[in-house]
Amino acid sequence: MKNKASITSPHDKLVKELFSDRQLARAFLEEMLPSDVVSLLNLESLQHQNNSYLSPPMEEIFSDVVVEVNLKNSDDSLQISLLIEHKSYKDPRVGFQLMRYLAEGYWQQLKNKQPLRPIVPLLFYHGKQRWRLKQMEDFFPNYPPIFQRYIPSFGIEFVSLIQMQDERLEQLRDGVLSATLGLLRYSHDWPTLLKRLPRIMESLSSSQGTGFVMSLFVYLFSVTELTVEQLKENLPEDIKTTFMSTYDRIMAEGIEKGIEKGIEKGIEKGIEKTILNAFDNGIALETIRVITGESTEKIKEVLQRNNRLA
């Protein structure tokens, strides 16, 4: 694997970007939550919340994305927290960490004088080892059962990619979701990923738009030895056309032309054109940062100077 300094925690960033997309978040919850829970939710009402229930120490362990969803035929709503596990290894303390997280979430609701709403924790794990989450009572095996009533108990929805069958991933109805989880599933196993890449990319044939799809390509280049030519060989024709059209506009007309000029002014103009082309094609600022290697501040300055941002 390459030592890529241009992206920090690319796996976690990709998951958070996926869940921050409203359409993909709905598709993810519809597929990953239990069917009896999904049947009670109006996922079309999903709204992202600008809050987090992570304490500073927990930020080293998790990222979280909080959404609010209405119940069907009701004015009531609940919150769903996707917690992305940073360390990608089995941590036996995760139940206690989630208990602290939920306590902070309910405390914030009380402190802000909000109606109390259930918080559904959904833990996302993309590590290499299989993992069975322990229930809280499992930590006290030597005590008589009568003491279990004093031990906090709560449900956790656990998504472990390493324990998810390929058939399950391929059957996901949203093609972008299927491809994203497939790439994450094998991100630690480059030979298998390369072998399965055509099947994974095939899922993108039904996708709409290029913004998040381009984020997938950037992710691939960041965590593997994959080249643009190898990626082209594994893309379905309709996605290949979209990818190369966008790639050509963003890269060939930008950085590569600047480099060909061989002078500092040409390179600078090429990078600026790359930033503008990427932004005009709906590419996220974080992805533009990865493509160009420029700081977020520099990218915003270029966009403001060219009337793309206020």
From TrEMBL:
Transposase (putative) YhgA-like domain span: 9-204
GO molecular function annotations of the record: double-stranded DNA endonuclease activity
InterPro entries associated with the record: Rpn/YhgA-like_nuclease (IPR051699), RpnA (IPR010106), Transposase_31 (IPR006842)
One of the GO biological process terms: DNA recombination
Family: Belongs to the Rpn/YhgA-like nuclease family.
Protein name in the entry: Putative transposase/invertase (TIGR01784 family)
Organism: Runella defluvii
Organism placement in taxonomy: Bacteria, Pseudomonadati, Bacteroidota, Cytophagia, Cytophagales
